[in-house]
């Protein structure tokens, strides 16, 4: 089945037309830097400048025009926040769209662009089914002790406060990819999956089920991210509210857009941070040290929760491409049976033919792996399965 997967971020749209029977990408395109002066469309080796003034709906229109002649049989959209209700790939109807709209305040950077893209795609391809898959869905298995915050029950219930977790489409894909690579049954594996992209989260996966994850009710909790602070003492926010005179919108902007790597080093591009750190820039060195420190804390915590680990996997932009971050996260883990092989880590390169690669020493009990994120393939397969097609 030919499924068009549309994966909208806050400033980019990835897309792929996938033949789900063979797991093959028939066509793929990506628009980056949306909203800036240099929005670009990448199609294979070709790059086309879209110029300034391109917003997300216009970028989606560009992509849809290019796919129309390929006649996709279904379209699938990634939606970050599915709240309590959405746990499975869901056919998009008017009432489902309304429900997703109501969840926008929980993921203000992500749900609104996805909705804008969905409306454009429904208009451009009205005759095929459109599905949504949700980043929160994989974490619906969180046990209560990981899901709940230690707030009074009446407050939690009244305001629907709980951990949801995100990046579930890719964490689920990582678990399946690790199992396939190791030729083991996923139900027998304990995996710590580190999704290190512009957004970042760690998930503890026990037997294929998410049992804890670093993002919370919103995608703000946990790791140091591109522009998000991750874990912050809530008392800091109270103080900023009272003494810094920041209102809710200003705090939102601070935590979502001006913190994390960008707040520490002035950019959220890890390549640039690594280059500047190597040249002696102290802010960039600190940003890397804090970034790695936070990941290691979660790896240690999740190893304790899982009662041991069989594999630690690194995925997404930084996890797949930065040998420096993988190395620094994996050093001094010998106590838990994870032995790094520096040379394999340095030479590691993932491709569509080799989407998983190991960088542990031969005598390591724990597998250290890099896994290519492929949300579009996972989305397309989930859609085909929901339609009873493979
Ligand atoms: P993603 O959100 O998965 O596209 O990941 C974006 C992040 O990956 C950005 O911080 C990029 O700087 C980072 N990244 C991409 N390629 C590399 C690389 N070769 N080395 C270090 N970081 C990279």
TrEMBL record:
Transmembrane segments: none
Pfam families to which the protein is assigned, alphabetical: Acetate_kinase
InterPro entries: Ac/propionate_kinase (IPR004372), Aliphatic_acid_kin_short-chain (IPR000890), Aliphatic_acid_kinase_CS (IPR023865), ATPase_NBD (IPR043129)
Catalytic activity annotation: acetate + ATP = acetyl phosphate + ADP
Gene3D superfamilies: 3.30.420.40
Enzyme nomenclature, EC number: 2.7.2.1
Residues given in the record as Mg(2+) binding sites: 7, 375
Pathway in which this enzyme or protein is active: Metabolic intermediate biosynthesis; acetyl-CoA biosynthesis; acetyl-CoA from acetate: step 1/2
Residues at the site labelled Transition state stabilizer: 167, 228
Binding-site residues, substrate: 78
Binding, ATP: 14, 195-199, 269-271, 317-321
Keyword line: ATP-binding, Cytoplasm, Kinase, Magnesium, Metal-binding, Nucleotide-binding, Transferase
Free-text remark on how the cofactor is bound: Mg(2+). Can also accept Mn(2+).
Subcellular location: Cytoplasm
Gene Ontology molecular-function annotations: kinase activity
Lineage top rank: taxon: Bacteria
Residues of the active site: 135
Keyword Cytoplasm included in the entry's annotation: yes
Cofactor(s) this protein cannot do without: Mg(2+); Mn(2+)
Family note: Belongs to the acetokinase family.
Assembly behavior: Homodimer.
Role: Catalyzes the formation of acetyl phosphate from acetate and ATP. Can also catalyze the reverse reaction.
Listed name of the protein: Acetate kinase
Gene designation per UniProt: ackA
